[in-house]
């Protein structure tokens, strides 16, 4: 038993190396998680941005947090898809009949999601800098932003794990991505919620993406973060714990 | 290789799914170093037996010892002793053949994973295709890679669940040769099949699973003795379609 435990990190890093290769070899994934958010950022800043009044001097500054969340949301369907394929092809079965740490295969996918999102978000921030994004935030604020983004990624990754592990068809596995794609669109990601009609506004202001976007925006513009950061953290941690428990139950049952 | 006379010892194995009984008390043993074929129609419970023996599924009652370890009490030790080639080819299609094997060697915590991969590629005739993605392989090549992945680490007991289903005659003979070679080296092989000919060609012992029980088992000679002695008749020996096919495609007809 002890020997097995010592191998957990080794096994997990082998699993992670494997699924990172999957990402780097899939042009489709790279386009959806990095190029598409960048294209949206270009579109909103240079085509629509002139007509959008956000009350900030620079629309890129306003837009970047939302674009980052969209990039993360876009990656979720792929995590679900990769997990589904592993279950379907019998790859998890193969790992589970080997002397490999039990949940290493699953954690490998989760860490892959974190690492690949970190890479794509870095690229997106660099492009934003070229487009005129400026931040007066200090190191701690940036670390807080990174922390929130990591929590958001983990929360969505575990949600994706539930659907990837329990789906019966490949369409079912990636269907989880659609509602998640929708959330940033009806939030304060592109325009202030105060411009929306009442019903939509009520939804936008009370769903997780708005509070997360607002918290990141305040941190990046070096403004005092109010209660929104706690609401944002509560959403992320709440979803993460709930999804983690369910994903583990499904994993034990299925794989 | 093993201290035990019987590498596999199964006693009174039962299993139901929900309320549908699948195994109703299965008993058999497999001598260390021999090839054991489990014959049965689709749905007779062959795969369920393999899953229980490879620690993927828990039995309802009965005992299973693999290499001296109880699957229910010491699944980790059992996993150290076995290797499974499942019913469906479980290779990572996005990785190359070589990468698949290196991954397995790392997961088995072997010292020189690249050397292990190189040797197996050579042994199974995959060297030329080693650096192509497995997605580009033919069905026979995939199965060979799949089996190669199971050979990583040299487990003393190997399970092959319908290893030749869906393969063309040439690829099937290749798999048979691999199995014979394995057994020649002292590895214990349990294979399931629905092809009578396959059992006849390969197995030292044959067991027939029907309606959740082993109805007969023994060597081919023993099974033949269950029937009335053969009458001598003169029949013109026509070549089988398989012999014709293999002669035309220029393969050796000896099987």
Features:
heterodimer, A: mainly alpha, 12 helices, 78% helix, B: 255 residues, alpha/beta, Rossmann fold, six-stranded mixed sheet, four-stranded antiparallel sheet, 9 helices, 25% strand, transport (chain B), P-loop_NTPase (chain B)
The stretches of 5 or more residues of chain A where confidence is low (pLDDT under 50) are none
Shape of chain A: elongated
Structural class of chain A: mainly alpha
SS-based class of chain B:
alpha/beta
Keywords (chain B): ATP-binding, Nodulation, Nucleotide-binding, Transport
Organism (chain B): Chitinophaga solisilvae
Family (chain B): Belongs to the ABC transporter superfamily.
InterPro entries (chain B): AAA+_ATPase, ABC_transporter-like_ATP-bd, ABC_transporter-like_CS, ABC_transporter_ATP-binding, P-loop_NTPase
What does this entry look like structurally?
The complex is a heterodimer of chains A (255) and B (255). Chain A is mainly alpha-helical and 255 residues long. Helix content of chain A is 78%, strand content 0%. Chain A has helices spanning 2-6, 8-24, 27-48, 59-88, 91-96, 104-130, 139-166, 170-175, 177-185, 198-205, 208-220, 228-254. Chain A is elongated, with a radius of gyration of 19 Å. With 255 residues, chain B is of the alpha/beta class. Chain B has one domain (6-248): P-loop containing nucleotide triphosphate hydrolases (Rossmann fold, 3-Layer(aba) Sandwich). Chain B contains 9 helices and 10 strands. Chain B has helices at 46-53, 75-81, 97-107, 113-123, 139-151, 169-184, 196-202, 220-225, 241-248, and strands at residues 6-17, 20-31, 35-39, 61-66, 69-70, 82-85, 157-161, 188-193, 205-210, 213-218. In chain B, the strands form 2 sheets. In chain B, strands 6-7-8-3-9-10 form a 6-stranded mixed beta sheet, sandwiched between helices. In chain B, strands 2-1-4-5 form a 4-stranded antiparallel beta sheet, covered by helices on one side. In chain B, strand 7 (157-161), helix 6 and strand 8 (188-193) form a beta-alpha-beta unit. Chain B starts with 5 loop residues before the first strand and ends in a 7-residue tail after the last helix. The relative contact order of chain B is 0.17. The model of chain B has no long low-confidence stretch (mean pLDDT 88). Classes of the chains: A mainly alpha (255), B alpha/beta (255). At the A-B interface, helix 2 and helix 5 of A face helix 2, strand 6 and helix 3 of B.
């Amino acid at each position: 038993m002890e020997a097995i435990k010592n191998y957990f990190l080794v096994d997990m890093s082998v699993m992670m190396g494997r699924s990172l290769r999957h990402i780097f070899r899939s042009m489709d994934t790279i386009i959806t998680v990095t190029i598409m958010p960048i294209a949206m950022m270009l579109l909103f800043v240079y085509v629509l941005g002139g007509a959008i009044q956000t009350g900030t001097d620079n629309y890129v500054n306003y837009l970047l947090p939302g674009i980052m969340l969209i990039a993360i949301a876009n990656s979720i369907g792929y995590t679900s898809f990769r997990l589904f394929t592993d279950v379907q092809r019998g790859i998890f079965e193969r790992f589970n009949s080997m002397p490999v740490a039990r949940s290493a295969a699953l954690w490998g996918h989760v860490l892959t999601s974190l690492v690949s999102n970190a890479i794509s978000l870095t690229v997106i921030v660099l492009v934003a800098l070229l487009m005129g994004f400026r931040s007066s935030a200090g190191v701690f604020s940036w670390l807080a932003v990174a922390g929130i983004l990591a929590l958001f990624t983990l929360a969505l990754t575990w949600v994706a794990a539930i659907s990837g592990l329990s789906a019966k068809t490949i369409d079912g596995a990636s269907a989880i991505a659609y509602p998640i794609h929708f959330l940033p669109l009806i939030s304060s990601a592109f325009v202030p919620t105060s411009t929306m009609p009442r019903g939509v506004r009520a939804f936008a202001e009370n769903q997780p993406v708005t509070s997360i976007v607002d918290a990141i925006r305040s941190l990046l513009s070096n403004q005092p973060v109010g209660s929104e950061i706690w609401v944002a953290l509560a959403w992320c941690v709440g979803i993460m714990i709930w999804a983690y428990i369910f994903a583990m139950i499904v994993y034990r049952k299925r794989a | 290789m093993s201290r035990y006379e019987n590498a596999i010892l199964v006693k009174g194995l039962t299993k139901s799914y929900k309320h549908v009984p699948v195994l109703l008390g299965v008993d058999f043993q497999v001598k260390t170093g021999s090839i054991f074929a489990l014959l049965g129609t689709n749905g007779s419970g062959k795969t369920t037996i393999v899953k229980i023996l490879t620690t993927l599924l828990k039995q309802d009652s009965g005992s299973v010892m693999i290499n001296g370890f109880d699957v229910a009490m010491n699944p980790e030790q059992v996993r150290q002793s076995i290797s499974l080639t499942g019913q469906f080819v479980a290779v990572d299609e996005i990785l190359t053949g070589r990468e698949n094997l290196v991954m397995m060697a790392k997961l088995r915590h072997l010292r020189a994973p690249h050397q292990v991969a190189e040797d197996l590629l050579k042994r199974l005739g995959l060297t030329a295709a080693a650096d192509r993605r497995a997605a580009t392989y033919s069905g026979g090549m995939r199965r060979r890679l799949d089996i190669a992945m199971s050979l990583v680490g040299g487990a003393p007991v190997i399970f092959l669940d319908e290893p030749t289903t869906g393969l063309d005659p040439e690829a099937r003979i290749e798999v048979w040769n691999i199995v014979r070679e394995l057994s020649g080296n002292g590895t214990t092989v349990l294979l399931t099949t629905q092809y009578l000919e396959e059992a006849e060609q390969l197995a030292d012992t044959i067991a027939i699973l029907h309606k959740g029980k082993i109805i007969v088992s023994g060597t081919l000679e023993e099974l033949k003795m269950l029937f009335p002695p053969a009458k001598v008749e003169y029949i013109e020996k026509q070549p089988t379609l398989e012999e014709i096919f293999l002669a035309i495609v220029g393969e050796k007809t000896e099987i």
